[in-house]
Fold:
Amino acid sequence: EPAMVMSGTLQRHLQSAHLLRMSGGLSPKKDRTVLQLQRLNDLCLGSFDNMSAAEIQEYYPHEAAARARDKFNYRYPGEGGESYSDLVARMREHILRLEQLHGSALVLCDKRVCRVFLAYFRGTRLEEIPYID
Structure:
């Protein structure tokens, strides 16, 4: 049983937490709280939100090329657009919270957020974060 359960605030995160509870993967104790943290939401793609990588490549090849040159520092255009560098800064507080935790934790998040956690705890160089599988 994890000492702490953290998730983003997106519908898919909340649904995952609900399914875990229903399947018995999380205890239904009244004191069991899932910390819903907006900072654990996925990287914001700005104007490219809801577009696939193939669509970005097709309609914005110059942006796809810029991202390919430097995936860590590339910031998606448009309102709220972020880079991996921005994501690392946004998550710093929660990474430190997990590091100080005595016991296990369950984090419900998207792949890019998970990459940041993995990089920190594995000691991976920042520039390699976008390539972690």
About this structure: The chain has a mean pLDDT of 91. The CA atoms of residues 29 and 39 lie 25 Å apart. The first helix runs from residue 11 to 23. The beta strands are 4-7, 34-36, 105-108.
